[in-house]
Design brief:
alpha+beta; Beta-Lactamase; Heat Shock Protein 90; 2 domains; 8 helices; 40% helix
């Protein structure tokens, strides 16, 4: 076990005293070092979840579990993590079970990637259905503006191309990270050109792939709903999208992003929550590790996303000279 490069932990005796190899250290996070400590004491925050599985191993039965989720505080805060593992009974020379061997591989990254792929696939279907309605709105707005047939044709083609561009951003597998201002511009491009009443305020800010995807989806959903029911459904309505970091000396940077609608029809809270609403209220704050407030005020919808900023891969505040 000690010479193995696969994460393993021998849990010995009634107290399941831990003896683990070097490959097991990343599994422990900031719980290391804990050699010689009881297994269920080290994993106290999830002890009641894994205790029955350990009991089966001590009863002589091996157990294999795939992508098992536990709540762990190994990073300093309680968060879910996924593991594929096997608890195997370890017997002495008389065949009596004296402990168990925990052979484990963390699969948190794999599970998140699979869920993101599923999110993208379901969103592609969802957005394809919405595309027909959105194109109809774009066509109507283009003809409402007047002008010659050629002018209307050119404007309509540009707006449809912009809509395609907004869809493409979700499918770029090599888009490892991106600047928030570019994500906002590309996600809202068809609405910026088609309506022209969305104001973007914020400095370039680098965010990761998960944030790029969920933010793109959320902004598109907010804009689509605004065109259908909110400020962008009228000639006088306006949307302001604003983001930034609050950085104080000695304090962790705090991120804030807001969507504010004004000048539209009176807002009423929807009676049902669809897939788009779940993208905004669940997926978006989860990807940023933050909180989201959605207010259906009569004068206009407002959304505020707030989070501590360890999610940022890097950020640059590029001031105009």
């Amino acid at each position: 076990m000690v010479n193995s490069t696969f994460p393993k932990c021998l849990c010995w005796g009634d107290d399941l005293i831990m003896i683990y190899n070097d490959a097991f250290v990343p599994i422990l996070g900031n719980k290391h070092p804990c050699l010689g400590k009881p297994f269920l004491e080290v994993w106290a925050e999830t002890a009641e979840t894994i205790r029955p599985i350990a009991a089966r191993a001590l009863a002589g039965e091996s157990t294999f579990v795939e992508d098992f989720v536990i709540e762990t505080n190994r990073s300093g805060k309680l968060e879910p993590a996924y593991f594929t593992f096997c608890y195997s009974p370890i017997r002495d020379e008389h065949g009596v079970v004296r402990g168990m061997l925990d052979t484990v591989m963390e699969t948190t990254g794999k599970v998140k990637a699979e869920r993101m792929a599923d999110l993208r696939n379901r969103e592609l279907i969802h957005r394809s259905r919405n595309a027909y309605a959105l194109i109809s709105i774009v066509v109507n707005q283009s003809f409402r503006s007047g002008g010659s047939v050629e002018d209307i044709k050119a404007a309509l083609q540009a707006r449809i191309n912009a809509l395609v561009e907004a869809q493409d951003i979700l499918m770029e597998t090599d888009f490892a990270n991106g600047s928030l201002d570019i994500v906002a511009q590309r996600s809202l491009q068809p609405f910026l050109e088609g309506v022209g009443r969305i104001e973007l305020r914020g400095d370039p800010l680098e965010i990761g792939r998960e944030q790029v995807t969920t933010l793109s989806l959320a902004l598109h959903e907010l804009a689509t709903n605004s065109v259908k029911y909110g400020a962008l459904s009228t000639h006088t309505g306006k949307v302001v999208v604003e983001w930034g970091l609050n950085e104080s000396p000695g304090e962790q940077p705090h991120f804030r992003l807001s969507w504010t609608e004004t000048g539209g029809p009176e807002v009423k809270e929807p009676t049902q929550q669809g897939f788009g609403s779940r993208i905004i209220t669940q997926s978006l704050p989860a990807s940023f590790g933050g909180t989201l407030t959605l207010l259906y005020a009569p004068e206009g919808l407002s959304m505020v996303l707030e989070a501590d900023a360890p999610f940022l891969l890097q950020h640059e505040l590029r001031a105009a000279e």
